């Protein structure tokens, strides 16, 4: 029966790919599967499942997490990881409770910080680039507006949860060391910031030969002001350059399925999921992160470069083209 070194569950596709890339760059054989096309018999070092629960109700998300974590529990893993959104969106409390139901008396260590992307936790509260998360654009998210950055309030009533502060990478590193010492008796939860430090315990970083993408489809499915600015900057810079074509999210899946592109650069988990569905949900093989929070993943005979909406420098798309284009 399959037994993994790491088994991870994420609530959306961009998060799943990000976690996979953290371990892949340490030389581990990682595979990512998206709901509903899952393969729990795949022999690999790291299994990451996109449970695709971000848009579900709390009860439906919990039910799916119980079923998926039950599959993992039957097979076993050295480390179990639940990847959560770095701005506290989604059904975090319901999903953590579901994991606790399946894994019995295991402690749950929740480390919501991701300092590399400007998310820090002080005194049990989440701050994004120095501001309380509930005072940022994430409070206006059209599907999951963030009402509070008080993490204790978010998981109130969920048993056996320990919240780890994280004002710096050193804080996350200390949390990761503690998790690895007790990996068989707990579940680690948090965004990919904690996953990066956990992955460092499995090996040294490997040299990565990044693919070249002369022709790429560029799709921004995020309404966040940061992604909109990144797309605007790139459009202006590429007026005289062919090869990387912008596409709206409504037609992106069809154009991606038609082929003709070396890869797709996609902002937003829901949009990435639609594009993957157009290819029939092939197994995904993470390569690594080419920029912080931007994983590069083999998708069948092509490449998928993904990013969640609300982070990154304004010139991020331009930098990606310099790194991956001709």
Descriptive account of the structure:
This protein has 326 residues and is α/β, with parallel strands linked by helices. It has 2 domains: 4-202, Putative sugar-binding, N-terminal domain (Rossmann fold); 216-324, 3-Layer(aba) Sandwich (Molybdenum Cofactor Biosythetic Enzyme, Chain A), CATH 3.40.980.20. The chain is 33% helix and 25% strand. It contains 10 helices and 16 strands. The chain has helices at residues 13-24, 58-75, 92-102, 151-154, 169-181, 192-199, 225-237, 249-258, 269-278, 316-324; strands spanning 4-10, 30-34, 46-50, 77-83, 107-110, 119-122, 125-128, 131-132, 161-163, 186-190, 216-220, 244-247, 263-267, 284-291, 294-299, 302-307. It has a 7-stranded parallel sheet with strand order 2-3-1-4-10-5-9, sandwiched between helices. Strand 14 and strand 15 form a beta hairpin. It is globular. The N and C termini lie far apart (44 Å). The mean pLDDT is 94.
Instruction: Please count the beta strands (DSSP E, at least 2 residues each).
Output: 16
- Please give the domain count: 2
Tell me the β content: 15-25%
| Low-pLDDT regions | none
Distance between the termini: 44 Å
- Under CATH, the topology of the largest domain can be stated as Rossmann fold
The average pLDDT is: 94
Characterize the biggest β-sheet: 7 strands, parallel
Helix content: 25-40%
The CATH class of the largest domain = Alpha Beta
